[in-house]
Amino acid sequence: MAKVFIFTASTGAGHNLAAQSLKESLDEVGYQTEVYDAFKEINVALDRLITKGYQQMVVNIPKLYEQMYNQFNNMNRFQQGIFQVLTKIMNPDIVPLIKSGKPDLIITTHPFVTNVLGTLKEHGAFDVPVLSIVTDYKIHTIYLKKMIDAYVVGSDYTKQTMVEKGVDEKIIFPYGIPVRQTFLENNHLNKKEAADVVGTILLMAGSLGSKQMEKAFSALLKVKEKIRIIVVCGNNAKIEKEIRSLTSRETDQNKIVEVHGFVNNVSELMDQSDAIISKPGGLTTTEAIVKNIPMIIPFYYPGQEEENADYLVDGGMAIKVDKIKDLTSMVDFLFENKYIIKRMSENMSEEAQKRSMSKTIELCQSLIAQ
């Protein structure tokens, strides 16, 4: 029985969910699969610095995060030095883990971990094939290391951006960002629409929640048509409390509102919806594409989410709204012209046909066999 180690990191939920999705699929075909949160395994202080620091920065100082994202995308000697230090910190723990566990394949779902593992392999610390899962739609330089054996990416667009940066196209496979098995099931036939409702909007903001959700919800309450609004607040209890308070104060008979905190049935909620308003995180974007649910994007973190938004808009799968207050007129317009929603959904369906978890599993098998 082949053994696979999957390394992830908790900067947002997407990397961990991609890792768990891969584990589900690999376990199904008989692999012995273990998932490790790389920074938690190595050093509690390091994990706190990277994961908590990331969360605080993107939420509270997005402009600084954008500046750092762009700087690291054009790696100079200073940025390279930072990753050399990170590699030295992780080396004493991660290499013995690999050597004692003796995996036949290593998969990484996080760019920092990809960089570190590529560096360690380049220095001869281990000799195991490494597969990097790119969890956004435009490649960041941090992913790119000579000793990575293969990349699975979300689209042909992603592959092209990598080729332009000098990566051999023969090791780039546009098989799609892994999603949970439940998202591959189609439950649209079970959709139950409330009487006289013209449509349903799903409002989300990712696992961290978003300060902009309250404004977006207020804009939806002003939509002239009778609509159903499903709100998922994630782990942000403060926002959930504010949304519930707003619901009790301002909702009239013209709106049907459901408010949730963190949920495990996003797939089911997408199946019930005509469009989703959300940050364009890599995994949320992929889940929406697989479900053919058009996206309306009124907020995003700079860096990879901004690039994901551009990819979606360019592909006719999403609409960006410059000001949150404009959500009101945009949703009215879309429900008055449902053919636009239909066309966006068709574009997503075309894109979804290109992804294949079975091909990703076959790639894993070929890397182990080589």
Automatic annotation (TrEMBL):
<dbReference type="Pfam" id="PF04101">
    <property type="entry name" value="Glyco_tran_28_C"/>
</dbReference>
<dbReference type="InterPro" id="IPR007235">
    <property type="entry name" value="Glyco_trans_28_C"/>
</dbReference>
<dbReference type="Pfam" id="PF06925">
    <property type="entry name" value="MGDG_synth"/>
</dbReference>
<protein>
    <submittedName>
        <fullName>Glycosyltransferase</fullName>
    </submittedName>
</protein>
<dbReference type="GO" id="GO:0016758">
    <property type="term" value="F:hexosyltransferase activity"/>
</dbReference>
<dbReference type="GO" id="GO:0009247">
    <property type="term" value="P:glycolipid biosynthetic process"/>
</dbReference>
<keyword id="KW-0808">Transferase</keyword>
<keyword id="KW-0328">Glycosyltransferase</keyword>
<comment type="similarity">
    <text>Belongs to the glycosyltransferase 28 family.</text>
</comment>
<dbReference type="InterPro" id="IPR009695">
    <property type="entry name" value="Diacylglyc_glucosyltr_N"/>
</dbReference>
<dbReference type="InterPro" id="IPR050519">
    <property type="entry name" value="Glycosyltransf_28_UgtP"/>
</dbReference>
<feature type="domain" description="Glycosyl transferase family 28 C-terminal">
    <location>
        <begin position="200"/>
        <end position="352"/>
    </location>
</feature>
<dbReference type="GO" id="GO:0016020">
    <property type="term" value="C:membrane"/>
</dbReference>
<feature type="domain" description="Diacylglycerol glucosyltransferase N-terminal">
    <location>
        <begin position="15"/>
        <end position="179"/>
    </location>
</feature>
